[in-house]
Amino acid sequence: MSRIAFLLFVATACHAQVDVLIVGGSSSGIGAAIGAARLGGSVLLVEDTPVLGGMLSNGISNIDSYSYESLSGVFDEFRQQVRAHYGYSGPLPPHKASHVDGHSFAAHQAEAGGRWEPHVAARIFQQMAARYPNLQIRYRTVATGVVMDGRRIVGVHFEDEKGQKSTVLAKVVVDATHEGDIAAWAGAPYRVGREARSPLEPHAGHMFFYNATNEILPGSTGRQDQAIPSSGLRVCIKKYPSGAPLVARPAGYDPEQFKYSSKGLSTEVPGEKFEMNVNPIGNEIQELNWTWPEGSLAERRRLYELHKNRALSYLYYLQHDLGRTDLGLADDEFVDNGNLPYRVFIREARRVEGEVMMTEADINPFLSGNTWLTPFRPDSIAVGEYPIDAKPVRPKTDFTKPDKGEGDFYLIDVTTAFQVPYGAMVPKQVEGLLVPTALSATHVSFSAVRMDPTWTVLGQAAGVAAALSAKTQVSPRQLAVSKVQSELLRQKARLVFYWDLPLDHPAFEAIETLSLRGSFRGFPDRTFHPDASLTRAQAAALIVKHFGLWPSVSGHHFTDVPYTHWAFRDVETLHDQHVLELLGLPPLWPQAGPYRGPVHAGFAKPATARQFLPDQLVTSQEWRNLLNRFRSNSLPPLPPGPVSRARAALDLYSLPVQEGVNP
Where does the SLH domain start and stop, copy by copy (predicted)? Predict the structure, then answer.
């Protein structure tokens, strides 16, 4: 069959054609759906359970982030709606930093919208999606295969709960599944398991680690393997003061398996409820879950039952062996599924190999530098902040040591806010596909990226990129990242991290954009001080970088800007460009008068006596004069007084990066 005949056959047999198809209603899936829908065009999201939001609606009931300042985009919209649902308003409650950087802490306070009930999350996501008439959603429908045109994915086959089969064709497909099924079926290369220890991955491979003292224990080999982290049903437990419904004794129950458990639950959430998140010994499974990533639908259903048995066994242990008869399954959650989550919490399955592969060095700032600054990514499409959190891959059997089991480590003291590059969700060898969930990252780096706040914004980025690709008919691989970034910033997604730049700041988009371009960055402590006044030294650096002036240093002209000053080259460049007269510093050569041999024939230089006053504030008139020097038309005047850094950013953002200003 010819290619044209094949495509005609598929188009005739299909049940839908859309611009953007998203497979998987995970946190990244709903992020992708909303991000794409905001750009118009037809969007279809297909989910295999009856709820949207992935684990956020399936038992993860608190924010996995170490700052509210790092949250943005669709996820922060979700948080604000959670906050409103529970009646919270006004300023966020005070908090105390618990991280060694002096800022970060576990940012999941209920008053900040940081905790929720599963059914509340599901309802909020459904309401968020319903705002877009061009976004259609199918529930309880599984993907069964893909339609390819050479190396380009052009559609996906589905089957719903009634056994009805369908095919959807799309200009661009987003694989938002946790397992990366669509990418794998389409032929994208992928990894399962852990890489070996390397210079960029000192915590990779076979590892024993004691979190309390941050020590790598003896017996750690760093060898590569196919192991994946523990997984479990994140059951929602409710407190019943008059006595909870007791669960029946699960098949094969043995109280000895919980002898070394913590004998408790986890985070308390609204409604007198708790997350069941007990690791390494509790409701989760290690090693027996290794077949999940590449398993068939039947195998995954078998493993679901295994996880279900484990979770109910732990609850039975709490109720019958520890006497906690006040705790039971929440009777108002997952009411059509025996009060159990629809989805197993699979932390990590397949990870595609993309145009960029993230490593531990992208998350742990001390591997590439010696400060809290992670490597800067001008191609950033998301910001996350969570420690590298790797869970055990094998059951703990040696109780003579304090570690939580082989593969477990929590690098809270060496992780900070990080960026995720666009290329990490562009898989190799397949066109027309974006993968924001099972993205391109090593096991160690994935252990920080895999948090839902980050995944949601990554999905939003994938949705935006997919919609732009469909609209412009440019492959996601060839799409200009700057166009994706511009739309993400309009949708209030953070791409560069600053502690003091809120999403609603009038200059948010301008500051983020200029930071990505490298023309206006913040300070080493990851602040920007947007409302602080602009100094002369800062103005010099901005003008040189924004207008792309060639560096030119002919000497040392100012006593207060020595060679060691951070802005020395920028100040001297403006001097050589004859720009500083706009700051009241005219050239000195006219004072020398006409040429006189006895005076001018030699090389004698008078001592430098002038000052630049680098910390002096720039007035609005001086700033306008500096900008207008490099423009063909003048900007309107500003009110008298100093110019803020935010005002400077807004001005520069409104201007094109000019060419031809160098001699």
Answer: 494-557
Q: What is the pLDDT of residues 74-118, one digit of tens each?
A: 999 999 999 999 999 888 777 777 778 888 888 889 999 999 999
Q: What domains are defined for the chain?
A: 3-192+420-484 (3.50.50.60), 231-329 (no CATH), 508-653 (no CATH)
Asked if residue 660 has pLDDT above 50, the reply is no
- Classify burial at 638, counting beta carbons within 10 Å of its beta carbon; exposed 0-12, middle 13-18, buried 19 or more: middle
The string of DSSP codes covering 233-266 is ---EEEE-TT-PPPPPPPTT--GGGGTTS-SS--
Would the CA dihedral through 354, 355, 361, 365 be positive or negative?
Answer: negative
Q: Provide the terminal-to-terminal Cα distance of the chain, rounded to the nearest Å.
A: 61
Sign of the torsion angle spanned by Cα atoms 517, 519, 525, 529: negative
Please report the DSSP string for 575-644 in residue order: HHTT-GGGGT---SGGGG-S--HHHHSS---PPP-----TTSBPBHHHHHHHHHHT-SSPPPP--SSB-B
In the block, residue with structure tokens 């008053």: 111
SS3 152: strand
**What are the start-end ranges of the H helices in 389-480?**
443-449, 452-472
Angle subtended by helix axes 27-37 and 73-85, to nearest 10? 110
The DSSP secondary-structure symbol of 403 reads: S
Distance in angstroms (rounded) separating the CA atoms of residues 327 and 331: 11
194 vs 376: CA distance, rounded Å: 25
Q: What angle do CA 410, 416, 417 make, to 5 degrees?
A: 125
**Residue 97 burial (CB count, 10 A):** 12
Q: Where are the beta strands (DSSP E) in 161-311?
A: 165-175, 190-191, 209-210, 215-216, 231-232, 236-239, 268-269, 273-275, 284-285
For residues 328 and 247, is the Cβ–Cβ distance under 8 A? Answer: yes
SS3 484: helix
Do residues 512 and 626 touch, judged by C-beta distance below 8 A? no
DSSP assignment letter at 70: T
In total, the chain counts a number of residues equal to: 663
Q: In a 10 Å sphere around its CB, with 0-12 CB exposed, 13-18 middle and 19+ buried, how is residue 518 labelled?
A: exposed
Closest CA relative to residue 139, chosen from 53, 260, 78: 53
Q: Which residue, 180, 118, 188, 637, is CA-closest to 342? A: 118
| Window from 96-100, 344-348, 459-463 with minimum mean pLDDT | 96-100
Residue 437 to residue 177: CA distance in whole angstroms: 6
CB-CB contact of 611 with 562 (8 Å): no
Task: Please name the amino acid found at residue 487.
Answer: E
Range 321-325 contact pairs with CB under 8 angstroms and sequence separation of 24 or more: 321/255, 321/258, 322/263, 325/243, 325/244, 325/246
Rounded CA-CA distance 468/461 in Å is: 11
pLDDT digits (tens, 9 = 90+) for 17-54: 999 999 999 999 999 999 999 999 999 999 999 999 99
